[in-house]
Structure formats: structure tokens, C-alpha cells
Model the fold of this input.
Amino acid sequence: MAIDVTTVVALRGERVLLVRQPGGDAWALPGGKRERGEPAARAAARELLEETGIVVSPRRLRGLDLAIAAGPFILRPFLLEQAPRARRPAELRCRWVALDALGSLRLLAGVAQSVQGALACRGVPADVEDPALRALVRWWTEHGRELPWRATRDPYAVLVAEVMSHQTQVRRAAAYWERWMERWPTAEALAAASLGEVLAAWTGLGYPRRARDLHRAAGAIVVAGWPPPDRLHELPGVGPYTAAAVRCFAYEEAILPRDANVTRVLTRRFPGGLRSEGDAWRVGQAVMEFGQRVCAARPACAGCPLRDGCLVALAPGWDPAPRPSRQAPYAGSLRERRGRLLRAAIGDPGTARLQDDEPAARSLLDDGLLREVDGFLVPPST
Done:
């Protein structure tokens, strides 16, 4: 049976308090076993006092709602911000360690996970003066890819780029984006095209509902104009991520668009978040590309400019970032069959029939991507 242990992540600015157990050479967080019937916060405060001499009320300890397996123990960490100085003799050797120097020490199991949870709970974001954020922006300045939409702040051009890039490789999206912008350089030009033309130009990018929604968004813009930045989500097909991306990359607002790539970087290295008011566009681009190319689902930790202070590097095999869900096989899927029918109906009207694959055909009809005429599937009329 696992033994419950309460621990304390005591922070002073960017330093954390560690203790060394007698006869050991590894560092741990202050803490120990709970006595029978003892409230967890009271046990944590008691162990902190005994081991470090720091006196705090249990009410100052914030539970992190974590249960971390560490050998025969289950660690239940608490956060103590702006820890006071010791008022009594300490039983153990104590040491305040800079967060970005944790990698130089041997740590007991669970320390990295506890510190990461505490930083996320503390919620103090790094700003542009943070050395790690400066290193990230410097990496992007030296290694960032040249993508055509990075040369514009036009909201329409940025919206097209974001819609195309979703669930599509960036280089592939870039080629489509350039052709698209030559053909339909404004929302007005796109709205004037038929949906059939738009779907034909989209062929090969996948997920054609994105093209349909982009066409609808252009129509809405022509009718009512662009909504204010904080209401971009009112455009058809524009969800919270896309709205945030347009606000960051077109309007240069200090809003970080959180896709899977950005979420990984924040969770692993900046759990308190990032403050980007000083250079919102550049910070947004840097975080996103770093998550795509370095801090990926399988991170390239060797040579990473943010390795110092990255808690993942301290605990091999542990990763606080959400794991990507495994996609169902494409071959034979409804998505593949839909794509095959859509290409046939748009590329060679009159060759695709409803009876060829009725489930796939019905889903395309329901989405407004095709229409039925005498049993044949044909492009939309508008």
C-alpha cells in the first residue's frame, strides 16, 4: 500500500527550497508522512517547520490537487509563495535553488512534477525581460522559417493562413495560400466566388468544411464588415484559437493563440504563462514555431535553448504536456470516402452518384459541400 506524503514547494521569486535527507546525496522538497487523522495542510506545515525551521499557518499553503507516484510514496504537494525566513533551527540541510539551476542537482523522484504544478498554480507569467523568453525569441530570429503570410498584417490574409494551416503541414499550406491570395486577395473577392470554385481550389488540403466556413466568413464580412477584434469568434468557422491567432498576428495584440504546439511549450517550460505586451507578434510566432520544431510531441531536448529550467529534462519519462490523440486510420475511413466523392463531383461533374457511397454522400450533402441532381452529386450552385 502506497504511503501518503505531504510536501511543500516553497518559493521566493524564482528560487525553490530543497532539503537533503540524512545519509543521502539527493535533494528533495520538505515534507513527510501524515499522522493518523491529521489534515494534509497541517501535516505539510508541521514537516516544513521540523525540517527547515520555517513557521507558517496551514492556511498559507495552497493544495495543488496532485498525487505524484514516487516509489512506495504518493506525494501530495502544497505551494507556499513568498516563503518567510526560518525562525527555528532546521533538522535538515536546506538550500534555496534557482529554478533554472535545478538541472545541476540530483533530485528525488517527484520534485520536478511538484515544482511544475506549483508554477502553473502560481500563474505568474514570464515577460519579455525573462532570460528564457529572450532566448526563445533569439532562437526564432535565427531559425524561423520564411512563410509568406509573415510579411502581412492584413486580417483577411492572416485568417486564410490560419484556416489553411490547421491540421495541415505548414509548407503545404504556404503553397496553397500563395495561389489563393493571387486569385482572391480580399474578402470581397472570395465572397464573389461560388462555393464550387472555392472547394475546387481547396482540393488537396483536406477538411473541406474549412473552405466552406472561410467562404461564409468572407460573405459575412462583405455584408457587415469586420467585427471588432474581441468579437472575431462571431465569424463563421472562427473558434477561440483562430480568433486569438488573428488578434495576435494581424492586430499584434498581446494574446497568445494556444494550439497544441503553444500549449506544449507553455506546459513544459512556462507553466505560469507568458506576458508578451512588449513584442506580441514576435513572441507568438516564436512560441508556435518552437513547439512545431523543437518542443514537439517528441521533443528535441538535445541542444534546446530552453533546457536550463525545463522541468521535463529533470524527470526522464515524465511529460506534463497533453499527449496527442491517436488518429483513426485514414484508409477506408469516412473522411477518405468523402474526399474521393468530393473530388469526383467537383473535378468531373456528372460522374459521382449518390448510390456510389450513400453514407459519405449524405454527409457531404448535409454539410452543404455538394448538392444532388437526379441522383448525381454536383458542386454547390453558390
